[in-house]
């Protein structure tokens, strides 16, 4: 076990964010699987619900991140965390009732609530790390945070998809688990130590949502030090949002596979990012640099293109979906599996240096706001990704075409980021 995980200044935060990420994804995937496999009557209807769910979860990040960042800079981050985790308990109770009754509107309301919950915790999670740990441990800590987030996604995904299963109503264990986990997450937050930062902002909180949001967006855009990192992180989440939004229907309608295969793909996706996150933190040690980020992006492009090439043009019509065991008897399915894993591994290599750089490049008094501003840009990119998916649906483009578009767009994004990094280095020279 890493020595970092034995520290009182890291372990409670690590567990608190882990259980929160688990519940977000357990509920979201339970909902999406229920809609895709049991409620919707067509692929088009299912895809529209998937896109709507993605937009509703990310919209609070845009609306409330400015307020969340100001609160994180102004007040005790530990106390705020405990209040946020307490709200999660209520949300899980509401979401449980929505799943039991298959009530889509209430599912979407709960999902929006979880988005708000994550919005207020996000700035705290990263802004508090430099207060808990010395600079030389930040890269490793960020790697563990990112890895655990996606392992939580993996476990939440397995619970959310397999608990729904192929027979509607088999969700009792899932509902019990998400409610217990919400309580455990709150208990973990009680053990987070209170560490006062060396300086606290004296700025008054601007409660005007639109004005505060505009101010943070403009301030970050003018900050030549952090802006390239914020743009790159936002691009990472746009790609992730598009891929995960399309994955249920890609598995169901394109690959003709059941929920066990869907859970398998999401597991590989999460494990890949987790392994990439830990790998880059080990390779770079305490060297916080962005020089390998564009190269990691090219890895994303290559494997997205590989997915496009590997996706079958058609399958023989059948009412029976492939189980995981049957699915893996086909060579081409192994190719798709490896592509998904290496795509996500490249994502882990890509994002960890960016988050760490963001932590150390900002004034402590405004770190929460900068991270919250990053979340606003992330939210804008994810909502944009959902809108692009909906536009592609209207244009009747295939899901495989989405992979091709991502590969091409990501290559251009890597080139732009490299130019921005070089420009920043020249300014700092």
Describe this structure in words.
The chain has 429 residues and is mainly α. The protein has one domain (3-195, 207-428): MFS general substrate transporter like domains (Growth Hormone, Chain: A, Up-down Bundle), CATH 1.20.1250.20. Helices cover 78% and strands 0% of the residues. The chain has 15 helices and no strands. Helix 1 packs parallel to helix 6, helix 1 (11-39) runs antiparallel to helix 7 and helix 3 (77-100) runs antiparallel to helix 4.
**CATH architecture call:** Up-down Bundle
At CATH level 3, the topology is: Growth Hormone, Chain: A
Q: What is the number of E strands?
A: 0
Give average pLDDT, whole number: 83
Number of domains: 1
**For the record, what CATH class applies?**
Mainly Alpha
Q: Per DSSP, what share of the residues sits in E-state strands of 2 or more residues?
A: under 5%
CATH-defined superfamily: MFS general substrate transporter like domains
Distinct helical segment count: 15
SS-derived structural category: mainly alpha
Distance between the termini: 40 Å
The largest pleated sheet is described as: none
Radius of gyration from the CA trace? 21 Å
The helical percent reads over 70%
| Envelope shape | globular
């Amino acid at each position: 076990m890493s020595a970092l995980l034995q520290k009182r200044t890291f372990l409670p935060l690590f567990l608190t964010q882990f259980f929160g990420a688990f519940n977000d994804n357990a509920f979201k995937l339970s909902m999406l699987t229920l809609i895709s496999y049991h409620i919707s009557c067509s692929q088009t209807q299912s895809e529209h619900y998937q896109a709507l769910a993605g937009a509703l979860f990310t919209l609070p990040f845009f609306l409330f991140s400015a307020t969340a960042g100001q609160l994180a800079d102004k007040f005790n981050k530990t106390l705020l965390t405990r209040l946020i985790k307490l709200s999660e308990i209520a949300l899980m109770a509401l979401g449980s009732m929505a799943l039991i009754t298959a009530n889509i509107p209430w599912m979407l309301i709960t999902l929006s609530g979880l988005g708000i919950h994550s919005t207020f915790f996000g700035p705290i999670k990263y802004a508090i790390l430099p207060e808990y740990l010395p600079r030389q441990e930040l890269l490793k800590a960020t790697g563990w945070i990112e890895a655990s987030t996606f392992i939580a996604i993996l476990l939440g995904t397995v619970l959310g998809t397999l608990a729904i299963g192929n027979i509607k109503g088999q969700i009792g264990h899932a509902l019990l688990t998400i409610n217990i986990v919400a309580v455990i997450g709150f208990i973990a937050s009680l053990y987070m130590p209170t560490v006062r930062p060396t300086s606290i902002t004296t700025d008054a909180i601007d409660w005007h949502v639109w004005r505060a949001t505009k101010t943070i967006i403009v301030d970050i855009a003018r900050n030549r030090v952090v802006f390239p990192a914020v743009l790159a992180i936002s691009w990472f989440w746009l790609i992730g949002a598009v891929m995960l939004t399309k994955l249920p229907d890609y598995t169901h309608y394109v690959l003709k596979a059941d929920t066990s295969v869907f859970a398998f793909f999401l597991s590989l996706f999460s494990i890949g990012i987790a392994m990439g996150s830990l790998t880059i933190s080990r390779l770079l040690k305490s060297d916080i640099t962005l020089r390998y980020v564009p190269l990691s992006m090219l890895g994303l492009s290559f494997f997205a293109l590989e997915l496009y090439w590997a996706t079958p043009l058609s399958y023989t019509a059948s009412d029976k979906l492939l189980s995981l065991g049957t699915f893996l008897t086909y060579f081409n399915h192994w190719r798709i599996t490896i592509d998904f894993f290496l795509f996500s591994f490249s994502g882990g290599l890509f994002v960890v240096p960016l988050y760490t750089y963001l932590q150390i490049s900002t004034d402590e008094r405004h770190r929460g706001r900068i991270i919250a501003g990053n979340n606003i840009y992330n939210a804008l990119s994810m909502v944009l990704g959902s809108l692009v998916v909906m536009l592609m649906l209207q244009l009747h483009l295939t899901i495989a075409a989405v992979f091709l578009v991502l590969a091409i767009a990501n290559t251009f994004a890597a080139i732009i980021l490299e130019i921005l990094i070089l420009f920043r280095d020249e300014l700092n020279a």
